[in-house]
Amino acid sequence: MDRKWVTQCALSRICGVCARPLGRPIAFLGTPREVGRNAFHLPPMHVACAVGLGEREETELVTTAGFEFVRPTREDDDRRPTFQPNSLL
Ligand SMILES: [Zn+2]
What mean pLDDT is reported for the chain? Predict the structure, then answer.
């Protein structure tokens, strides 16, 4: 999943796996560190799509009703945008 696609998912509110519009809840997959920071790098997904993807990797799944798309600032070492769920379910 490249950065352009991740941004498109964020702005269009489409699923990063199947590209269909997102409803609620919205699922995010992340490493324990991403979950701890509440900042995810993978795009938002349907719960079913996230479960399918997550089975292949060491990730945790969180669900939320909404999220912020946060673009990196010049000061950030990590220049990738992140997704920050703002109403965890
Ligand atoms: Zn999907």
Answer: 93
